[in-house]
Design a protein that fits this description.
With 142 residues, this protein is α/β, with parallel strands linked by helices. The protein is built from two helices and eight strands; from the N terminus they run βββαβββαββ.
């Protein structure tokens, strides 16, 4: 499982110009599900993201996690994170999980976050437009 986490002041995702998910302060999390991923990778990713201390205290030290600042998470499925680009000019996505399995695990990611923080999500396999105001900018690959 690969993910890109961006700390945001706000983020939204739209499908056909209709906003389907929007958050204020928190994280935009782009998630790609790989062949062989299972519930253990989902649990590990969610636990890691929830535990990361990426918000500053009054002294500017990164000391607070998403729950401590009452932040939200916008989760967006993005299989293109798994692109293999070493050869040729057209990316290969052979490392991506089959669509049915990827959708099941993506939904589990969303549900696990929803049990801990306010969460919004995109729509699996949809053509989406993602907007964000990156806070920092602060971006991590997981």
């Amino acid at each position: 499982m690969k993910a890109v986490l961006q700390r945001v002041l706000s983020a939204s995702v739209a499908i056909d110009s209709e906003v389907v998910g929007v958050i204020g302060r928190g994280y935009l999390l782009l998630v790609g599900v790989e062949k062989g991923d299972d519930e253990a990778q989902v649990a590990g990713l969610v636990d890691k993201v929830l535990g990361l201390r990426l918000f500053a205290n009054e002294h500017g030290k990164l000391d607070y996690d998403i729950r401590q600042v009452n932040g939200s998470v916008l989760v967006v499925s993005q299989f293109t994170l798994l692109a293999e680009t070493q050869r040729g000019r057209r990316p290969s996505f052979s490392a991506a999980a089959a669509p049915g399995e990827a959708q099941r695990l993506y939904q589990e990611v969303v549900q696990r976050f929803a049990a801990a923080v306010p969460v919004q999500s995109g729509e699996f396999a949809a053509d989406m437009q993602v907007s964000l105001v990156n806070d920092g900018p602060f971006t991590l690959t997981l």
